[in-house]
User: What shape does this take?
Amino acid sequence: MFTLQDTLLLALGSDNSSISLYTLSEGSGTVLLTTLTGHEDWVRGLDFRASNYGGLLASASQDHYIRLWNISRVENKGENETHFKLKEKMFQVQGTQFRVSVESILLGHDNWVTSARWISNGKLLSASMDKTLIIWDQGSDGLWSESVHVGEVGGNNLGLFGALPTSDANIFISHSFQGAFQAWRSTDSGWVGIPMPGGHFNAAKDLCWSPSGQYLLTASTDQSVRVSAEWRGGGGGWYEVARSQIHGHDMSCVHCISDSQYLSGSEEKVLRVFQATSTFFSNLSAITGCSVDAGGGVDHVIGAHIPALGLSNKAITSEDMANTPVQHEGTASIKDCDIPYQVAFAPADLTTPPVEEVLLQNTLWPE
Assistant: This one.
């Protein structure tokens, strides 16, 4: 909803790829002013930025495009009689005639664009099911281009449903298909991810404290086992510090064997034992400020990955990383395993809770 000529207008995006503009009329209810066409799939998001002459309506669509519709007053009839002009739609509000034309078509996402929002500095923020956010800026030549592109690479979630900026446009928060909040802050070195509280996006069926009491394991029908601990620095509070198991079946139970091992069960009626990694313990100590005795047998295991067509997490050792050839985008080969896996593991030394991208890629425990 937005105002034009002191009149409230409603823009409605439809699953038939069109955008309808309505106004309110006394005694008649809503009145259709015009219908805008051009998108080739469901219109998922709309936002309007007002100006002295009219404004810009941004539309986000499942066709991967963002369209910017220029709404402006028609100052005199002669303006409509030029020989060269863009295709326009005309409508009238309180005796004033307006035209609508496409100012720009933006392509930068590789999947559905689910949200487009104007931010306070005149730029446009878009979110997509390709798991990225883009900030669009208009140059001095009038052309729109990407100025910031942030988000995830890899992982198994389906993408972002939308994003919101803070009033000063220094922080952007997005929400994803699997219930996670992700946020980025503007710094002198660029945009960086910041920790966000999170949790399961389906029923939590079981939970278990580690014997030391330093972390909590939870199993859920969202097909994951997650590890939560208290962050005793920064803002404090409880955060997810590892996503130790991402399974192909709904989880039903979890039980800690020791601080470095747990047993889990799922609807497949199989019990599996998972072992913590040395990377997990070093990061847990840095986040919680408490050292945990990892026990023997974990020093050489630094991470895990899920092979293609597999349900079991396979261990990654420091020797594997030393013998890993140069990684190409989207794949990496581990020693003695010729099958490329979807997400390249990269051990990270953390002092704050991990962001969603790190949770998805680098916090699995091997089976």
